[in-house]
Design goal:
This is DUF4190 domain-containing protein. Keywords: Membrane, Transmembrane, Transmembrane helix. It is a single chain. By secondary structure, this protein is an all-alpha fold. It has a domain of 65 residues. It has four helices and no strands.
Length: 116
């Protein structure tokens, strides 16, 4: 049935939402910007093991290789959510030491360089 003017006038008006009076900027509650959620320690260890292993392929592999291995092992032990990153760090840390050992054996010294 179509709405007629008599049926619409008999309806009560819907309640209006309560509006607060406008506040001045100085009266507004202070809102801090949301902080970024910090990464759990074991996830950070997994990421850093990957980074150390990757950098160790180029420089300081005798130092960064064991660091990458240690961080990856600790991250896996503590149950990181970034298991793949920790496994990559473990692999890259081992590769650092393998590269160091092979280059040191080929050159006969502990130090090595890419030049002739």
């Amino acid at each position: 049935m179509p709405a007629t003017p008599s049926t619409t006038l008999n309806r009560p008006a819907p309640p209006k939402p309560d509006r607060k009076p406008a506040q001045r900027p100085s009266q507004e509650p202070s809102r801090r910007p949301e902080r970024r959620r910090r990464m759990p320690k074991q996830d950070a260890m997994a990421v850093w093991s990957f980074v150390m292993g990757l950098v160790g392929l180029l420089i300081f592999n005798v130092v960064l290789g064991p660091v990458a291995l240690t961080l990856a092992a600790l991250a896996l032990k503590h149950g990181t959510a970034r298991r793949g990153r920790a496994l990559l760090g473990l692999t890259l840390g081992a590769a650092d030491l393998i590269i160091f050992a092979s280059l040191a054996a080929a050159d006969g010294t502990i130090s090595w360089s890419l030049g002739a």
